[in-house]
């Protein structure tokens, strides 16, 4: 009888240890480290706290030329709408594609590039082909300067896009949700 009680206590202790170990493991898996400058998961959100006026949200995935792209829906100023189809390719570049022109590829960022590196968004010398220069890079943040060099009215106009690792765009957003977790809220 005493032997059976001891075995029962040992088995209970082992069950408790296994239960604790498995619950710790689940917590680690639920909060993975996000190593991307633009995390892509349906539901990711950048914008106002109440989802009005201006925001961007990943709504779904779409296949374009056999590749998975994420549909980024943006509401701008309460009445303007923009839709972009983006993915990060095997070379760690942020690529935009167009369902209506599947062979057209637009490079929006190259996260493997170094400061001073240059590339072209379309590489076709049209008015929408920007010359992009990596203007800043740290382990946590990366910036790209876009110059319109082929547009007759806007030559050398510059805009900068900055990305924060694990968060995406560096804009002044009230609320940011990445992979189901609120990472910023005013």
Mean pLDDT figure: 85
Tell me the number of structural domains: 1
Number of strand elements:
13
Strand order of the largest sheet: 6-5-4-3-2-1-12-13
Shape: globular
- Helical percent range? 10-25%
- What's the helix count? 1
Sheet/helix structural class: alpha+beta
Uncertain ranges: 3-31
The largest sheet, given as strand count, sense and whether it forms a barrel, is: 8 strands, antiparallel
What are its keywords?
single chain, alpha+beta, 8-stranded antiparallel sheet, globular
Helices and strands in order, then pairings?
Blueprint lengths: L1 H29 L14 E3 L7 E10 L2 E10 L3 E9 L4 E6 L2 E10 L7 E3 L9 E8 L3 E8 L8 E8 L3 E2 L5 E4 L2 E5 L1
Antiparallel strand pairs: 1-2, 1-12, 2-3, 3-4, 4-5, 5-6, 7-8, 8-9, 9-10, 10-11, 12-13
Overview of this protein structure:
The chain is α+β, with helices and mostly antiparallel strands and 186 residues long. The chain has one helix and 13 strands. Strands 6-5-4-3-2-1-12-13 form an eight-stranded antiparallel beta sheet, with no helix packed on it. A five-stranded antiparallel beta sheet has the order 7-8-9-10-11, with no helix packed on it. The radius of gyration is 23 Å and the shape is globular. The model is unreliable at 3-31 (pLDDT under 50).
């Amino acid at each position: 009888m005493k032997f059976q009680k001891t075995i029962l206590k040992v088995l209970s202790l082992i069950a408790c240890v296994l239960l604790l170990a498995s619950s710790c493991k689940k917590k680690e898996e639920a909060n993975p480290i996000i190593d991307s400058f633009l995390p892509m998961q349906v539901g990711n959100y950048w914008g106002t706290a109440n989802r009005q006026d201006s925001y961007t949200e990943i709504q779904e995935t779409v296949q374009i030329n056999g590749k998975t792209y994420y549909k980024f829906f943006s509401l701008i100023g309460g009445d303007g709408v923009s839709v972009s189809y983006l993915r990060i390719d095997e070379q760690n570049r942020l690529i935009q594609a167009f369902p209506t022109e599947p062979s057209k590829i637009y490079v929006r960022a190259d996260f493997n590039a170094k400061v001073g590196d240059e590339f072209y968004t379309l590489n076709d010398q049209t008015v929408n082909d920007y010359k992009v220069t990596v203007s800043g890079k740290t382990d946590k943040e990366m910036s790209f300067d876009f110059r319109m060099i082929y547009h007759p009215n806007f030559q050398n106009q510059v805009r900068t896009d900055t990305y924060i690792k694990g968060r995406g765009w560096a804009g002044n957003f009230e609320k940011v949700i990445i992979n189901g977790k609120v990472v910023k809220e005013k």
